[in-house]
Structures are given as C-alpha cells and as structure tokens.
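hey can u check if this looks right to u? its 148 residues, i copy pasted from the old doc so theres a chance i mangled smth
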Amino acid sequence: MASKAKPVYAFHMIRRVDPRLTAYARELRNNPTPAELSIWHRVSRYRPPFTRQLVQAPYIIDLACRRAKLAVEFDGSQHLATIGKDATRTAFLERQGWKVIRLWNSDVLNNPDGAAQHILQEVAECLGDTHPQPLPSREGRERRPRFK
C-alpha cells in the first residue's frame, strides 16, 4: 500500500516578516506611549489610513501612512543616546522610498493638535497636495425610514 506523501512546500514556507519582529510590533501596538496614543486618536479617522507599529524589516515604524510612504517616529529622551542609530534607520527607510519625520514626545504631549496637523500636512505634501479628508459624518443627514 502506497503512503501519501505530504507536500514539500508545507515544510519550507518562507515568511515575509520575521515572527519575532511581528510579535514585538504587536506588543508595542498593545502598549503605546502617551504621545503615540494622543496622535493616534487624532489621525486615525483621516484618510488615507494610518498604521501603528508597521514592520519594515529590520525596523518598526511608530506611525505610518502607507499610501503617502510617510513614516512618523516619536522620539523620547532615550533617543539622545542613539542619534547614530536613528540616522542609520532614517537613511534605510529613505532608501526604501519613505519620507521620515521625527517628533519629540514632549512636543507632541504639549501640542497634540499641532503635531497631528503637521503630520496631516506632510501626508498632503507626499500625495501631491491632496488634503486628507475625514470619514464622512452622518451628522445633518435625515434618516430614511426602514419600513413603510
């Protein structure tokens, strides 16, 4: 009796992203800094959509707009000691076609609306001056009756 052979490809699947990076990005997404959370609440309703903790191996982008290829990095005091690494990271992302902007956590927390507006203006510039629009609101519309 012939035994069924298992497909070879099932054992040799190549992952696009390292699972450790994905797990770390998920952990960062579940535990955002106050600055990240403040900005996320302000820009998440705009289009084109934003993504938090996007993996661009070997790095993780704090906030990204994929369509505009805009990467937003939130820097805290720990980044003072890693300026060289930050420059390397920025250069890598720029070679991949991303525009990188860096915002200090303290600036974001002191003026979150201004920081969000700055991010949205950068997105508009990257997309050729098309202003990102918020999702349409139902406010002011009359509701149709479901049944007559």
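The first strand starts at residue 46 and ends at 47.
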